[in-house]
Amino acid sequence: MSGAARFDFTGSVVLVTGGSDGIGLAIARAFQRTGAEVTITGTRAAPADYDHPLDGLRYQKLLVEDCASVREVVAAQQRLDVLVNCAGMTLREREHEQEGFEHVVQVNLSGSNCAARAAFPLLRDTGGCVVNIASMSSYFGWPRTPAYGASKTAIISLTKSLASAWAKDGVRVNAIAPGFIATKLTARVREDEQLAATILGRTPAGRFGEPDEIAGAALWLSSAAAAFVTGVTVPVDGGFAASGL
Ligand SMILES: NC(=O)c1ccc[n+]([C@@H]2O[C@H](COP(=O)([O-])OP(=O)(O)OC[C@H]3O[C@@H](n4cnc5c(N)ncnc54)[C@H](OP(=O)(O)O)[C@@H]3O)[C@@H](O)[C@H]2O)c1
């Protein structure tokens, strides 16, 4: 199949937490290409601290586990059409310790909740929307990352609850559940030959996805084409969730 879907976000203002790298950066670039004014956040002090270009994007340092800072970053927006809650991380085996567990839930789940709530008044003004990022870990268990999985399962529930609460105000809330995507988050998994082969062996598409391949779903969910879509989580996973093997 060929041909890129066309979206026009001219005049829209988009905030992507965790937009400094990986999936968030691909989503930010997709919104930028379609005309939006985009602010991204990352954990480092300045855009120059990254080894890849972040040109044309407004940048804010933000640790999403700090809800007061999240509120400040959102409050600095004069207008907001789309909030993409993409900031996320794993502590792997350290998630089996209570401290590690709580930190990951704080970042992945509470951070998304805090940002969505801070953004709500601005989104109500524009009839805007939230796009959360779930995971295959929302549906399946992984022995190493109990907090990552719990936080990502809860993202689906949070998405449904906020969508139900805010539909009357014209604010839609949806999520994307990516499969295994080639980013720094999955670097160790992809380098582990045995684990990578196991994952690809049960991925019907037979490959890891690219960050750009998540962006289309974010554009669609944020567009007028999805005006009656709220509370859903869309898997973009090369068939991983559909496969029985
Ligand atoms: N890659 C996958 O296969 C996959 C699959 C399912 C879901 N996801 C989800 O997709 C989202 C993006 O992940 P990715 O794969 O693109 O990983 P990534 O390349 O590591 O990007 C993660 C982003 O989150 C930011 N971040 C990390 N910790 C943060 C914190 N405490 N506060 C604020 N920002 C923080 C990072 O900032 P820095 O750049 O400064 O580190 C970066 O912008 C995450 O929610 C992840 O759980 C990824």
Layout of helices and strands, plus pairs?
Layout: E1 13-17, H1 22-33, E2 37-42, E3 58-61, H2 67-75, E4 82-85, H3 98-126, E5 129-133, H4 146-166, E6 172-178, H5 187-191, H6 193-201, H7 212-222, E7 233-236
Parallel strand pairs: 1-2, 1-4, 2-3, 4-5, 5-6, 6-7
This protein binds NADP nicotinamide-adenine-dinucleotide phosphate.
The site of NADP nicotinamide-adenine-dinucleotide phosphate (NAP) has 27 residues, from helix 1.
Weakly predicted, low-confidence segments: none
Assign the CATH superfamily: NAD(P)-binding Rossmann-like Domain
Which overall shape is indicated by the principal axes computed on the Cα atoms? globular
| Total DSSP E strands | 7
Give every kind of bound small molecule, once each: NADP nicotinamide-adenine-dinucleotide phosphate
Could you write a compact summary of the structure shown?
With 245 residues, the chain is α/β, with parallel strands linked by helices. It has 7 helices and 7 strands, in the order βαββαβαβαβαααβ.
How would you characterize this protein structure?
This protein is of the alpha/beta class. Helix content is 39%, strand content 14%. Strands 3-2-1-4-5-6-7 form a seven-stranded parallel β-sheet, with helices on both faces. The chain is globular, with a radius of gyration of 17 Å. The model has no long low-confidence stretch (mean pLDDT 97). The structure holds NADP nicotinamide-adenine-dinucleotide phosphate. NADP nicotinamide-adenine-dinucleotide phosphate is lined by residues 18, 20-24, 42-44, 62-65, 86-89, 107, 133, 135, 178, 180-181, 183-186. NADP nicotinamide-adenine-dinucleotide phosphate (NAP) binds next to α1.
